[in-house]
Amino acid sequence: MVETPTADSPAEPDISHVPPYAGKTWLGHPPQLARLFSIEMWERFGFYGMRALLVLYLTKHFLLADHEANGVVGGFLSLVYLTPVVGGWLADRYLGSKRSVKFGALVMALGYFLLCFGGQQGQPYATVDGNRYNVTQAAPATPLAVNDAPQTIVMNNQVLTIHGLPDGSVQLLGTGGQIARTVAAKAFSSGADRSPFYTTMLLVALSLIVIGNGFFKPNISTVVGSLYGPGDRRRDAGFTIFYAGINLGSILGQAACPWLVNHFGWWAGFLIVSFVLLIAYLLLQFDGGRLTGYGEPPTQEGPDRAPLIYVLSFVSVIVFWLVFQNVMTTPEATPGGGIIAYIIATPFLGKALLAIFLAAVIGIPIWSWRVGDKVEREMMLAAIILVVFNVTFWALFEQAASSLTLFADRNTTLELFGFHMSAAATQQFNPLVVVTFAPVMSWLWLALAKRGLEPSIQVKFAIALMLVGLGFLTLTLSGSTANEVFRVSLWWLVLTYFLHSIAELCISPVGLSMITKLSIARIVGMMMGVWFLSISVGEYLAGAAAQSASVQTVGGQVTNPELSLHTYLATFQTGGMLTIGAGVLLLLISPLLKKLMHGVD
After folding, report:
1. pLDDT tens, residue by residue, 216-253
2. Does the keyword Transmembrane helix apply (predicted)?
3. Do 99 and 154 belong together in one domain?
4. pLDDT greater than 80 at residue 425
5. Residue 17 DSSP SS3
6. Alpha helix locations (H) across 519-560?
């Protein structure tokens, strides 16, 4: 409706600096939060959708051995948490948060798009006593389907079926299942021929995703924070709403991407991920002025450094490609070689992360001892101790992206309530539990706080460690319930994810808050970087732990499901016991930490 100007309504339009939407709110918060919620949701849709597929893409399409695939996944996830340290610094100094998020979204969209081009599936082969034989196997009904078709080789003009034994040796079966030959474990190996071009494209794609994530991940949260002025009590609630977008995107991505892969092919699962990242970019690029003034570049003298930063970011793809190449091709440590052999066999990324982390956890307390007073020194020491325990948590929790997904594919029934699901889709159990039980945990902490019984930060950390360890020990009990093909009910994995998700709710929300409370004010930013570095180290160790659960495969299929079941469960038991032990240790030193923290809860 057009209003007629009156004496009380001047004909001239209002051109004041206050935008017409300034007085509006969204769920009681600045209206811009709705747009940022959507941007984060679509980005997390992409990341977690791709994460659900990655280890299966590597083992089923590229036919990487478990050791190689788990190494790549661990390296990728560790870099995902390492590059935001640099991306946040570049945004603060040169780009501004909003421009960094835009650039990161575009770079990730390009990386996801390149994943669509995987070429032909690798061609498996087996080596027997030094002689190589091509392996033939019928294709599965869908890319993510479990493939139980016989695998055969032609030896001496005879078609022989490969049948693995629990001790690692292999039987070659002739017509009628007669044993033609038994090959010792040391005399049998497997591999696959794959296109060097598409393998290079795969690693370039992962490199681009890592780089884009470094610009996106730390800075979208910074823009959210800038919506609230100093003292605005809506800030924490606003971030709670914002983080709900993470879990919503995760659930949608981990449901949609496996479905698309099974119905259309690998390319479809990655193409949708690239598409939603473009949506995230467009929501920010064409914001109708709603985000003007938020996350803008800092005032700086001289020419704009952004073009140079963009160019160097793409040049750095070479560095990340070399890191991934090293992670994928580093040989396993020699059995019985001890810690020295393990360190020598550790890829460059592992050595670098370990060196940087040790320098941080040793150097920062020494520095704080020199410049801080007694209270500051002790609080910093407590923060560093909790950071070290944080590494342990993520090393076990992030098995979801590797060994737990492979276990689901190879040794679970993959059925719930009569519905069949892919191994990739099992990763959505975690965000579903988080979304369902986050309000319950929040209510529980508040109820305990009213009675003066809320656990302290360090006790919550200890609970998280023991719960994640208990999740794995619970899973080890499933072995006695395996069916005739050595698959256990998927409900065991659901229970494990439930325990892990409750553990996540005990540690993840309080970690960053703990850093801000315990750190010396002038190095809070550095300590935030150390916190993310601890997660990065944990992610890398998660890949290394998954490598210890590696089993022999031919063409992505385990040679013996009984052997794989026992290997996974033994690894889970060891990890679970060690993590519970770490949690008990943290409980034992909790009184000491309480004293060092000087009343910080």
Report:
1. 988 888 888 888 887 777 876 787 788 788 889 999 99
2. yes
3. no
4. yes
5. coil
6. 524-548
- Residue 111: inside a domain: yes
The number of domains in the chain is 2
The C-alpha angle 55, 60, 64, rounded to 5 degrees, equals: 70
Largest CA distance in the chain: 103
Give the range among 215-219, 251-255, 506-510, 563-567 with minimum mean pLDDT: 506-510
Same domain? 227 vs 316: yes
Same structural domain, 275 and 263:
yes
Q: Domain residues for 84?
A: 26-122+194-296+305-331
Q: Quick one: tokens of 278?
A: 């473009």
Return d(Cα 141, Cα 162) in angstroms, integer.
21
pLDDT in tens, 134-148: 999 998 889 999 888
pLDDT at 387 over 80: yes
CA distance 257 to 267: 10
Q: Give the CA distances from residue 114 to residues 2, 107, 200, in Å, rounded to whole numbers and listed in that order.
A: 51, 11, 11
Dihedral, 32, 36, 41, 42 alpha carbons, nearest 10 = 110
> Is 163 inside a domain boundary?
yes
116, 50: one domain: yes
Matching residue, tokens 């919506």: 227
Distance CA(160)–CA(182), nearest Å, equals 11
Tokens 């009984």 belong to residue? 562
**How much is the pLDDT for 517?**
80
Provide the residue type at 430 as one letter. N
Please check whether residues 109 and 239 belong to one and the same domain.
yes
For tokens 């029934």, what's the residue? 413
What angle (nearest 5°) sits at the alpha carbon of residue 41, between those of residues 38 and 46? 130
Give the pLDDT mean for 310-316.
96
Q: Could you say which DSSP state residue 164 is in?
A: E
Confirm if 446 and 578 have CB atoms less than 8 A apart: no
Q: Above 50 in pLDDT, residue 14?
A: no
HEC string for 200-239: HHHHHHHHHHHHHHHHHHHHHHHHHHCCCCCCCCCHHHHH
Strand, helix or coil for residue 139 = coil
Residue at a domain's end among 193, 220, 248: 193
Is the pLDDT at 153 greater than 90? The verdict is yes
> With bands split at pLDDT 50, 70 and 90, how would you rate the model's confidence at 525?
low
Reported as a pLDDT band with limits 50, 70 and 90, residue 339 is very low
Residues 6+ apart with CB under 8 A from 231: none
Average per-residue pLDDT for the chain = 88
Report the CATH number at residue 73: 1.20.1250.20
User: If DSSP codes are grouped into helix, strand and coil, which group holds residue 24?
Assistant: coil
Asked if residue 80 lies in contact with residue 213, where contact means CB atoms within 8 angstroms, the answer is: yes
578 lies in some domain: no
For residues 201 and 186, membership in a common domain is answered with no
Q: Does 67 fall in a domain?
A: yes
The predicted model scores a pTM of 0.90
State how far the Cα of 360 lies from the Cα of 429, in Å rounded to an integer.
Answer: 35
CA quadruple 306, 284, 425, 534: dihedral, nearest 10? 40
Answer yes or no: do 92 and 143 share one domain. Answer: no
Distance CA 433, CA 542 (A): 22
Q: Same domain for 67 and 173?
A: no
